[in-house]
Amino acid sequence: MSMPAKSIAVIIVAAGKGERAGLDGDAAPKQYRLLAGIPVLSRTIAAFLDHPQISHVLPVINAGHGERYAALGLADPRLLAPVAGGASRQASVLEGLKALAPLRPDLVLIQDAARPFATPELIGDVIAALQHHDGALPALPLTDTIKRSLDGREVSGTEDRRQLSAAQTPQGFRFGQIFSAHMRAGNVRRDFTDDAEIAEWAGLRVAMVMGDAANIKITHPDDFTRAEHILLGDERMETRIGTGYDVHSFEPGDAVWLGGVKIPHHARLNGHSDADVALHALTDAILGAIGEGDIGVHFPPSDMQWKGAASTIFLRHAGDLVAKRGGRIVNCDVTIVAEAPRIATHAPAMCAVIAETLGISASRVAVKATTNEKLGFIGREEGIVAMASASVEVPRGD
C-alpha cells in the first residue's frame, strides 16, 4: 500500500481548437465559450481549485490562445502560469508533465478542459483509488447495445456491453510513473486516445471508479444546450419584464390609498375599488410580464363585488398567478407622480405592504415619488398617476 499523497497537481488540457463545437458567428474555441455566462475553461479550473486536496493546477493551452486565456482573469496561488501544448492531446499532456516535473508532485490528475462538471466527490474518488493503484479513471457502464462494423455500413458483430465502459476524466496517476510512461510512449506511438491507455500500454494497474452521467465532454454545438440544462435544470428560468400605468382623479374625501397605505388628504381618489393607483399599476406590470392581460380582465369594474375592495387583493392575485407557473417575482419598481399628498415619508410602509402581499423581501421593492412641477392635471392637483415595472422569472418555454 502506498503512502498518502503529499501533493496533488492537476493538468487541464486546453490546447485544442475546439472547432467541432463552434456555432455560426462564434469563432471562439469551445473552452473559451460562455456556458451560462462563464467560460467553459474557467468552470473547469474552478472545479479543481475548489477541491481542498489539490495543490497546483496547470492549464496547457494552445500557443495562439494566450490573450484569450489572459482575458479570463483567473487568479489563485495554486493556479500556475499556463504552458503551450503540442500538436496532439498526447503531446500537450507531456508538455504539462514536463512543466510540473520541478514541483515533483506525488500525484497528478489529467482533466479535459471541455469537461466542466467534475464534482468534488468524483475528484475525491479518483484520488482515493490511487492509494491502491497506479492509475484511476471515472467510467460509466454502457447501457446501449454496441455494434461493430468493418466498413461503417453493415453490422459485423455485437460487443458484450457488460465488459465495456465509457471513460471520463479526471484520470489520476502517480506522477513519476505516468511521466515515464508518456516519455516512452512518445517515442513509440502518438495516437493514444487518453492517458489511461498510455498507462495500460506501460503495464500500470489502472482502476475504474464510478463516473458521473453529468460529467459530459462538450464536443458538438448541441452539447452546450445539454450543459446548460445540467447547470440550470431542465426547467431553466427566463426573466420577463412588465410595465403598468394607471391614473385616477380626485373626488371629495379625507384620505387616499397609495401602495396599500392610507394617507390623510383633503380628497380621495375616484375609482371602483379603493382606487389605489400605485397597486393598480404594479398589478398590471406583473400581469403584463406573464402575458395575463390587465387588471380589468381579472377584476371587471362592472362586477359589484369589487366595489371599494382593497387593491392588495388584486396584487396578491397577480403574484399567485406567477407562483402557479413555477415562477417568482424578482423585483418591483413603482413611481408615483403627485403634487399632493407628500408621499416620500410613506414609501417604506408601502414597500412593506407590497412585499408582504407578494411574499417577497422588501429589498426587492422600490417606491419613488415625484411631482409634475405644477404642470398639467397633476400640477393642478386633479389626480395622481402611477407607473410601475416588474421583473419575474418563469420556466423557459412557459
Automatic annotation (TrEMBL):
Catalytic reactions of this protein: 4-CDP-2-C-methyl-D-erythritol 2-phosphate = 2-C-methyl-D-erythritol 2,4-cyclic diphosphate + CMP; 2-C-methyl-D-erythritol 4-phosphate + CTP + H(+) = 4-CDP-2-C-methyl-D-erythritol + diphosphate
Involved pathway(s): Isoprenoid biosynthesis; isopentenyl diphosphate biosynthesis via DXP pathway; isopentenyl diphosphate from 1-deoxy-D-xylulose 5-phosphate: step 4/6; Isoprenoid biosynthesis; isopentenyl diphosphate biosynthesis via DXP pathway; isopentenyl diphosphate from 1-deoxy-D-xylulose 5-phosphate: step 2/6
CDD domains: CDP-ME_synthetase, MECDP_synthase
Listed InterPro entries: IspD, IspD/F, IspD/TarI, MECDP_synthase, MECDP_synthase_CS, MECDP_synthase_sf, Nucleotide-diphossugar_trans
GO biological process, one term: isopentenyl diphosphate biosynthetic process, methylerythritol 4-phosphate pathway
Positions of the record's site feature: Transition state stabilizer: R20, K30, H272, T371
Listed GO MF terms: 2-C-methyl-D-erythritol 2,4-cyclodiphosphate synthase activity; 2-C-methyl-D-erythritol 4-phosphate cytidylyltransferase activity; metal ion binding
Start and end residues of each stretch annotated as 2-C-methyl-D-erythritol 2,4-cyclodiphosphate synthase: 240-398
Site (Positions MEP for the nucleophilic attack): R161, K217
Segments crossing the lipid bilayer: none
Domain named 2-C-methyl-D-erythritol 2,4-cyclodiphosphate synthase: residues: 240-392
Residues annotated as binding a divalent metal cation: D246, H248, H280
EC code: 2.7.7.60, 4.6.1.12
Residue sites binding 4-CDP-2-C-methyl-D-erythritol 2-phosphate per the record: D246, V247, H248, H272, S273, D294, I295, G296, T370, T371, N372, E373, F377, R380
Region (2-C-methyl-D-erythritol 4-phosphate cytidylyltransferase): 1-239
Keywords: Isoprene biosynthesis, Lyase, Metal-binding, Multifunctional enzyme, Nucleotidyltransferase, Transferase
Cofactors, names only: a divalent metal cation
Its job: Bifunctional enzyme that catalyzes the formation of 4-diphosphocytidyl-2-C-methyl-D-erythritol from CTP and 2-C-methyl-D-erythritol 4-phosphate (MEP) (IspD), and catalyzes the conversion of 4-diphosphocytidyl-2-C-methyl-D-erythritol 2-phosphate (CDP-ME2P) to 2-C-methyl-D-erythritol 2,4-cyclodiphosphate (ME-CPP) with a corresponding release of cytidine 5-monophosphate (CMP) (IspF).
PANTHER family to which the protein is assigned, alphabetical: 2-C-METHYL-D-ERYTHRITOL 2,4-CYCLODIPHOSPHATE SYNTHASE, CHLOROPLASTIC (PTHR43181)
HAMAP family (alphabetical): IspD, IspDF, IspF
Family, as annotated: In the C-terminal section; belongs to the IspF family.
The protein, known as: Bifunctional enzyme IspD/IspF
Organism: Devosia elaeis
Biological classification of the source: Bacteria, Pseudomonadati, Pseudomonadota, Alphaproteobacteria, Hyphomicrobiales
Gene transcribed to yield this protein: ispDF
